[in-house]
Amino acid sequence: MRRTASRRSVLVAGTAALAAGCSKYGDEDQGGGGDEAAETSEAPASSEKGSGDGSGDSQQPPAADELTKTSAIPVGGGKIFPDDKVVVTQPAEGDFKAFSAVCTHQGCAVKDVSGGTINCPCHGSKFKVTDASVAGGPATRPLDTRQIKVTGDSITLA
Predict the structure, then answer these.
(1) Contact 78, 129 (CB under 8 A)
(2) Each residue's pLDDT expressed in tens, for the chain with a length of 158 residues
(3) Whole-angstrom distance, CA of residue 158 vs CA of residue 156
(4) Rounded Cα–Cα distance for residues 145 and 84 (Å)
């Protein structure tokens, strides 16, 4: 006589097997953290946003929040970093400022920096590179200020 499993017994057995399998994943009794320690030790070796300058200095890990080098920001202009939603300007030699790259009119991403303004392609708003105040509407509020740190020739998010 052949006995078939009921639907309920199959569900109970499957649930028990699933629970048993999940209890082993990430078990911290296996050496104090398992995979998390390996991920942490590998993090400094990764390079983000092209922060390696090719100098061959492998003693100091690259800053994870480095945006660019100061030489990449033109005097009287700026550069947009879409992934970070930030625009960095240099209104005067050695004076670096950072602002949100999101237009205060309707939330579009600003497109370029030229002619002394940060320009939004959606409705034509323009913001001054000196302080992100409105140079031309329809925006009525300046771009939000962002904090950066300039160390040597490196610009990083603060």
Answers:
(1) yes
(2) 555 556 555 555 554 544 444 443 344 443 333 333 333 323 333 333 333 333 334 334 445 577 899 999 999 999 999 999 999 999 999 999 999 999 999 889 999 999 999 999 999 999 999 999 999 989 999 999 999 999 999 898 88
(3) 6
(4) 13
Which residues does residue 157 pair with via DSSP β-bridges, in sequence order?
A: 148
Annotate 40-75 with b (16+ C-beta within 10 A) or e (fewer): eeeeeeeeebebeeeeeeeeeebbeebbbeeeebee
Helices (H), 3-127: 7-24, 35-42
pTM: 0.59
**What is the gyration radius of the CA atoms in the chain, in angstroms?**
26
* Tokens coding 65: 């929040």
Q: Could you tell me the two tokens for 149?
A: 């740190």
Find where tokens 């497109």 sit.
Answer: 111
